[in-house]
Design brief:
single chain, about 525 residues, Alkaline Phosphatase, subunit A, Arylsulfatase, C-terminal domain, 3 domains, ten-stranded mixed sheet, four-stranded antiparallel sheet, 14 helices, globular, binds calcium ion
Length: about 525
């Protein structure tokens, strides 16, 4: 009965909210001149997860600069992506629309740059729009006065950048520093008669997790503890958790672990022969400068030698791989944090920090050994979540937090709302402004979020396609190609190791969640 009432409330809430939402959309925006509109800095990293951000309580790393955005603004504790994979997630953030509507469902798709995006709408409203860093949408950026991006995934060291003025040039150095250099250069030469919107998108901490030379070896003497679900046996789950190909033990010895192969030696990853061409650390190493090679040799050679001599197997081998993986991952995050600090310092020095809205997020979360995994894709919390913090001292009270359910879908409407630009009716996200500024409005916030991951059977990591719905307490997942279901009670089982789909005590909850899943599918036009 209780859950029935809850869903009645959801339906009513939705109606109420739809009304209030359309009221927001239809109301005239505050009568302000463009000079009064905030500058926008939208920071997106690639695969940075909440477990590696100290504002979320991470014990793995200290991220003081990224934390400044959260501590001096609002931190979202339940922030999710609609589709946990790189390019689709970026398309959602730009359009405020689900993959089924913006057309970019998996990493094979090309973004249709002719469609409406928030940078285009800002540009039309008089903003100077700038995109720097990792774009990863196959088509060229549209809606920007200037852009400088990495082609495809880009390289950590000595990367090539292509730009809106037609330049394609290799730059010596480390990608996270270079992206920041270019972003600062653009800000320094901006048109000060206009507000600016800077999209500052990092490659890090994406695979293959190459730290900057200044940070190499920094965690050498540290032993990072294993997450408590590291040896998860998936015994309550069906095929998808068993059949995935993203276990720590299957990380490539060469590409991921940075071990040099002997002549004729094949990489000892867990299969995936078709990807061997890119799985070669020696190819990457050969692209480094002499100084860079020396730094890597000094940091890794003796450790690599001991590893080869030890001939580890079983759990010892898996745990060695985990240490190499997690330390490299965390060090790439450290460089992002250092560089976010450079950007924040610049804004402060220029007197821009009061009237600039700064958003920090990532294109999704990531597994740092939880369930024995790296990578993303699944609707389980680690990869379904994304870090999200917004700092805007003019409007947002420092030190705010919220547990309301928010999505990357909401970023475009939020940015437009703050910029004083009308939110188009066809955007599917909602402005976060009722949460950032007026806690009383929290009562009418959404009660469930909807998820759809597509990339199967092609592509990487063999994660079955699935749809799902999450409320404050429950999560229902449908792996629809094999018709397998999972249900989790997040209050009793926050680590999601106990699938209770067949537990009859939850029959009513299951039924209601299935109805909600169907309702949200229709609402978001995901009807294929
Ligand atoms: Ca990503």
């Amino acid at each position: 009965m209780k859950i029935f009432i809850t869903f009645e409330i959801i339906a009513l809430t939705f109606l109420l909210f739809s009304c209030s939402q359309s009221k927001i959309n239809n109301s005239k925006n505050p009568p302000s001149t463009i000079e009064e509109n905030p500058n926008i800095v939208f920071i997106m990293t690639d695969d940075h997860t909440k477990q590696a951000m100290s504002a979320y309580g991470s014990k793995l790393i200290n991220t003081p600069n990224i934390d400044r955005i959260a501590n001096e603004g609002i931190r979202f504790d339940r922030s999710f992506v609609t589709n946990s994979i790189c390019a689709p997630s970026r398309a959602v953030s730009l359009t405020g629309k689900y993959s089924s509507v913006n057309g970019l469902r998996d990493n094979r798709d090309r973004f249709d740059g002719s469609q409406q995006t928030f940078p285009k709408l800002l540009q039309k409203a008089g903003y100077q729009t700038i995109m720097i860093g990792k774009w990863h949408l196959k088509s060229e950026p549209t809606g920007f006065d200037s852009w400088r991006i990495l082609p495809g995934q880009g390289n950590y060291y000595n990367p090539t950048f292509i730009s809106s003025d037609g330049e394609s040039k290799k730059h010596e150095g480390y990608v996270t520093n270079l992206i920041t250099d270019f972003a600062l250069k653009e800000l320094k030469q901006r048109d000060t008669s206009k507000p600016f919107a800077l999209l500052y998108f990092h490659k890090a901490p994406h695979r293959n997790w190459m730290p900057d030379i200044k940070d190499l070896g920094l965690y050498k003497d540290k032993k990072i503890p294993l997450p408590k679900t590291f040896y998860d046996d998936y015994n309550t789950r069906g095929k998808p958790a068993h059949e995935q190909d993203m276990r720590i033990e299957n990380l490539y010895n060469s590409f991921d672990m940075k071990l040099h192969l002997s002549d004729g030696e094949k990489d000892s990853s867990g299969g995936n022969d078709k990807f061997d061409a890119i799985s070669n650390w020696d190819l990457v190493y050969r692209s480094l400068t002499t100084n860079q090679k020396t730094a890597w040799d000094n940091a890794y050679n003796s450790e690599n030698k001991s590893f080869k001599e030890a001939g580890l197997s079983g759990n010892e081998l898996i745990e060695w791989k985990y240490q190499r993986y997690i330390k490299d991952y965390l060090l790439t995050v450290k460089s992002v944090d250092d560089n976010v600090g450079r950007l924040l310092d610049y804004l402060e020095k220029e007197g821009l920090s009061e009237n600039t809205m700064i958003i920090y997020t990532s294109d999704q979360g990531f597994y740092l050994g939880e369930h024995g995994w790296y990578d993303k894709r699944f609707m389980y919390e680690e990869s379904f979540s994304m870090p999200l913090a917004i700092r805007y001292p003019n409007k947002i009270i420092p030190g705010s937090t919220t547990k309301k359910l928010v999505m990357n879908l909401d970023l475009a409407p939020t940015i437009l709302d703050y910029a004083g630009v009308e939110i188009p009716e066809d955007m599917q996200g909602i402005s976060l402004r009722p949460l950032t500024e007026n806690n009383k409005s929290n009562d009418i916030w959404r009660k469930a979020v909807y998820y759809h991951y597509y990339e199967y059977p092609h592509g990487w990591h063999k994660v079955h396609a699935h749809r799902g719905v999450r409320t404050d307490r429950y999560k229902l997942i449908h792996f629809y190609d094999i018709n397998e279901w999972e249900l989790y009670d997040l209050k009793k089982d926050p680590s999601e190791v106990n699938n209770i789909y067949n537990n009859t005590d939850y029959s009513k909850i299951k039924k209601d969640l299935k109805e909600e899943l169907l309702r949200l599918r229709k609402q978001y036009k995901d009807t294929e």
